[in-house]
Design a protein that fits this description.
Blueprint: E1 5-8, H1 14-27, H2 39-51, E2 56-61, E3 64-73, E4 83-90, H3 99-112, E5 118-124, H4 129-137, E6 141-152, E7 155-165
Parallel strand pairs: 4-5
Antiparallel strand pairs: 1-2, 2-3, 3-4, 5-7, 6-7
């Protein structure tokens, strides 16, 4: 088995990215979407990120995409233009293998090279300990919890907000 490669995503990765995200929409509270978007919608979302000169990365091993991560605008208003939100998704068959850690490390480094000062993690479900621990590992601190703001899988879900400085 070859080493894990983190690289910019390509259009050719969209089928796998869509598959990975669809799994998380259907089976996890990491995202509050309830219907998985199709590949065309995922392509539009990716194009929007890239048009803003923000990173959209994949983790690949042996020519197979195992996960992806991207930075997006935290909020649409201009005053937030130096703040990004991170998103990291790993194929369900490859969890707990350091893929999310490798993706987030690369995403942070890429964002440090841009104009951004702060990175926000908007973590779906306060019970999502793996994501909370992942972000803590990279120096994110919890700055708040929005209680019972989402409803999915017949239960109310919190959102945990974590923040990390990219540059001072």
């Amino acid at each position: 088995m070859n080493q894990l490669l983190i690289r910019p995503s390509t259009e050719g990765d969209l089928n796998t990215i869509t598959h990975i995200y669809s799994h998380h929409v259907r089976h996890s509270s990491a995202t509050f979407e309830v219907e998985p978007p199709d590949e065309d919608e995922m392509a539009t979302r990716r194009s929007t990120i890239l048009a803003l000169a923000m990173p959209y990365l994949v983790a690949e091993q042996d020519a197979v995409v195992l996960g992806y991560a991207y930075a997006s605008p935290y909020r649409p208003r201009p005053a937030y233009r130096f703040t990004v939100e991170d998103s990291v998704y790993v194929h369900p068959e490859h969890l707990d293998r350091g893929i999310g850690r490798a993706l987030l490390a690369a995403l942070i480094e890429d964002c440090k090279q841009g104009p951004w000062r702060q990175m926000i993690a908007v973590i779906g479900d306060s019970a999502n300990e793996a994501s909370i621990r992942l972000h803590q590992h990279f120096g994110f601190r919890t700055v708040g919890t929005l209680f019972e703001v989402g409803f999915k899988f017949d239960r109310w879900l919190d959102t945990v907000l974590m923040q990390r400085e990219l540059r001072s």
